[in-house]
Design goal:
The protein has 2 helices and 4 strands; from the N terminus they run βαββαβ. The protein is α+β, with helices and mostly antiparallel strands. A 4-stranded antiparallel beta sheet has the order 2-3-1-4, with helices on one face. It is globular.
Length: 104
């Protein structure tokens, strides 16, 4: 069986600078753990700097990690969920990366 790790970077502040409510993060953690049976939350802040259409953005993010079977259904879930997260966190982009992992 093949597994894939999905890492989601979620902001702790909206683009207007106001803080993301703890309930929003708790909702995401609850949704992912209910759907996949577990999630790992890394609350330490990850500082990011990036450019979009000539404008510089600085942000702090947290990381969520979900290890799942490497299936088309799971890949589709994260593609759809990304759009949900972009709206929920009022973001231009939400970074979700995935890579194959080996569980021993």
């Amino acid at each position: 069986m093949s597994f894939r790790r999905y890492e989601l970077l979620l902001p702790i502040r909206y683009n207007d600078g106001s803080p993301v409510e703890a309930e929003e993060m708790d909702e995401v953690i609850g949704e992912l753990s209910a759907h996949f049976g577990g999630v790992t939350f890394h609350p330490e802040h990850l500082r990011g700097v990036w450019l979009h259409q000539g404008e510089r953005f600085e942000e702090s993010n947290v990381r969520l990690v979900v290890d799942v079977e490497d299936t088309p259904d799971n890949a589709d879930f994260f593609r759809r969920y990304k759009e949900t997260l972009k709206k929920r966190f009022r973001q231009i982009e939400v970074w979700i990366v995935s890579y194959e992992i080996r569980v021993t």
